[in-house]
Q: What sequence folds into this?
C-alpha cells in the first residue's frame, strides 16, 4: 500500500547518514578520511578546504583514470577568501549501494602522488 511505502521511505530517510570527507586538508594531497563505509541512502559530502582539487570516481584496474559515467565534481578553486567567509565548496555524493567507490583527484599529478580514497572498501 502507499501508506507502507511512505512509512518505509520515511524510515530509510531517518536512518540515512551524512558523512564528511575533507579534501586537501593542510594543503596536502589527501582525502580525510581515506576510507569510509557508507550504506545505501547515505550521503558523502566532500568539503574542499584548499585550492584546485576534484573528486572523480575511478576503476582500480586503471588507476587515475575516470571510469565510464564517472562522478566528477569539477575543479574546486578554493582560496582564503572562501575560507574567511566560511564558504567552502562541497560536492555531495548519494550512496546507491554497498559496492566500493574508488575516488581520486584529477588535478595535475595529485592522484599519482596518492590523493585517493575508497568508499566501502572490499
A:
Amino acid at each position: 500500500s502507499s501508506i507502507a511505502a511512505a512509512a518505509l521511505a520515511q524510515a530509510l530517510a531517518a536512518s540515512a547518514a551524512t558523512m564528511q570527507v575533507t579534501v586537501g586538508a593542510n594543503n596536502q594531497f589527501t582525502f580525510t578520511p581515506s576510507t569510509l563505509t557508507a550504506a545505501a541512502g547515505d550521503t558523502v559530502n566532500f568539503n574542499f578546504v584548499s585550492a584546485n582539487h576534484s573528486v572523480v570516481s575511478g576503476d582500480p584496474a586503471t588507476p587515475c583514470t575516470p571510469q565510464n559515467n564517472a562522478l566528477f565534481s569539477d575543479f574546486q578553486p578554493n582560496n582564503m577568501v572562501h575560507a574567511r567567509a566560511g564558504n567552502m565548496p562541497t560536492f555531495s555524493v548519494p550512496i546507491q549501494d554497498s559496492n566500493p567507490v574508488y575516488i581520486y583527484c584529477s588535478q595535475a599529478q595529485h592522484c599519482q602522488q596518492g590523493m585517493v580514497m575508497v568508499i566501502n572498501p572490499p
Summary: Residues 43 and 94 are 4 Å apart (CA to CA). The mean pLDDT is 87. The radius of gyration is 16 Å. The chain has one domain: 2-119.
